[in-house]
C-alpha cells in the first residue's frame, strides 16, 4: 500500500521532470517569438512617434490606450532606458 | 492628335468643337445624365475650375429628378455655403426638396477623434501623467496628415451605412492632388492593417502553441509564454483593426465599382487645368478608378466682340483642340462663362440644364421650394 503510493508519486514526479526536460526549451523559444511579435506590433503602433513614417498612425492612435501598460516594459526591452516618446514619459 | 492621313479622320467631338461656336448648346444628354443613376459621384479638378458649381448643379439636377441626394464638400476651402447662399457646416443641412448638404472639416474631425483617444488614455493612466498625455495628443493633432486621415475616415463612413437612406451622394472633392491621395488611402490603409493583423494572428498562434506546452513548474510563470497583453486586449486590438480594414476595403471597392461610383473631372480651357487634369486622369486610371466624363467650364460666349476677348477666344479654341487631343475618348459636357458668378439655386439649376443637355431642358424643369 505504502509502496504503491510512493511508487506512484515517483512516477508522477519523474514524468513531470521528463516533460520539463523536453518541453522547456520549446517553451522558452515560443515565449521569445511571442515577445518578438508583440514588440514588432508595438513598434508598428508607435513608429510615427519614433520618426518612422507610418501612413496609418492616425488610425492606430486609438490602440494606444490599450497598449499603454505594456509600453514601459517595451521601451526597456528595446534598449531605451527612458521613454522614447517626447511628451510621453511613463518613467 | 496628328493622324497619318491628315484630314481624313476627324473625330466627332473635334468636329463639334470646330463647327460649333458654343458647344454647350449641344451637350450630349447621355454623357452626364446616366451618371446621376449611380450611388456616388466624385467631382474633381484643379482648384478654382468650378468643381463645387458642377457638383452642386449635378446634385440639384438629380434631386430634381426625384433622387434623394446628399452633397458633400471635402475641400477645406468650402464653397457650397456660398453657392447656396446659406451656412452649411459639418451637419447635414436641407438645401432643397430632396437635397441635403454637408461640409466636412478635417481639422474638426481630427480633433474630435483625438479627444476621444485622450479620454480613453486617461482611463488607463495615473492622473500625474495627464499633462504628458495632453502634450502627446496635441502633437498628434498637429501631425502632418492628421486632418487628411480624418477626412478619409469620414469619407469612408459616408460610403457606408451612414448614407444608406440616400439615392445619390455627390462629393465635391478638394483639388486634384489631394483627391488622388484621398482615393489611394484605402489601399495603403488596408495593406497596413493587413500587416498588423498578421502579426496579431501570428501572436495568437504562438500563444496557442505556448498553452499546449503548459505552464512552467508550479504554474507561476516568470515572463512565461502567455502574452503580456492578455487575451482580452488582444481581442480588442483585433476588433479595432478589423473594423478599420472593413471600412476602408468597402470604400476602395465601391470607388472602383463602375456600377456604384463615377468620377467626373472639371477643367477650364487653360493650360494648367488641362495639364493637371490629364495627370489626375492618368493617376486615377492607374488606381483603377476611371474618369468617366469631363466638364469643360467657362467657355467664352459668342456675344463677345471686343478685340481682347476675341484673342482669348482664339486661344480658347486652341485649348479646346488640346483637350480633344489629350482626352480623346472621354465624353464631355461644356458650360459657358456667365455674366456673373453662378450662385443660388436658380443659377445652379440653369447650369445643370446646360450640363445635362437640351433634352433635359424640355422634358424636365425641376421645381423646388426653397
List keywords for this structure.
A: 91 residues; B: 370 residues; eight-stranded mixed β-sheet; elongated; disordered N terminus
The helix content of chain B is 40-55%
For the biggest β-sheet of chain B, the strand order reads 3-4-2-5-1-6-7-8
Number of strands of chain A: 0
Order of helices and strands of chain B: HHEHEHEEHHHEHHEHEHEHH
Low-confidence stretches of chain B: 1-8, 217-225, 359-370
Shape of chain B: elongated
Shape descriptor of chain A reads rod-shaped
Order of helices and strands of chain A: HHH
The count of DSSP E runs of length 2 or more, i.e. the number of strands of chain B, is 8
Instruction: Tell me the number of helical segments of chain B per DSSP (H or I, 4 or more residues long).
Output: 13
Proportion of residues in extended strands of chain A:
under 5%
Summarize the main sheet of chain B. 8 strands, mixed
Fraction in helix of chain A: 55-70%
Give the termini distance of chain A in whole angstroms. 60 Å
Whole-number average pLDDT of chain A? 81
Nearest-angstrom radius of gyration of chain A? Answer: 22 Å
Q: Which assembly state applies to the chains in this document? A: heterodimer
Brief synopsis:
The complex is a heterodimer of chains A (91) and B (370). Chain A is an all-alpha fold and 91 residues long.
Give an overview in words:
By secondary structure, chain A is mainly alpha-helical. Chain A has one domain. Chain A has helices at residues 2-46, 57-60, 64-77. Chain A is rod-shaped and about 70 Å long. Chain B has helices at 12-19, 29-32, 51-64, 80-84, 106-124, 130-142, 146-158, 176-212, 230-256, 271-286, 307-326, 345-356, 358-363, and strands spanning 40-44, 69-73, 93-96, 99-103, 168-172, 261-267, 291-299, 332-336. The radius of gyration of chain B is 26 Å and the shape is elongated. The chains are: A mainly alpha (91), B alpha/beta (370). At the A-B interface, helix 1, helix 2 and helix 3 of A face helix 5, helix 6, helix 7, helix 8 and helix 9 of B.
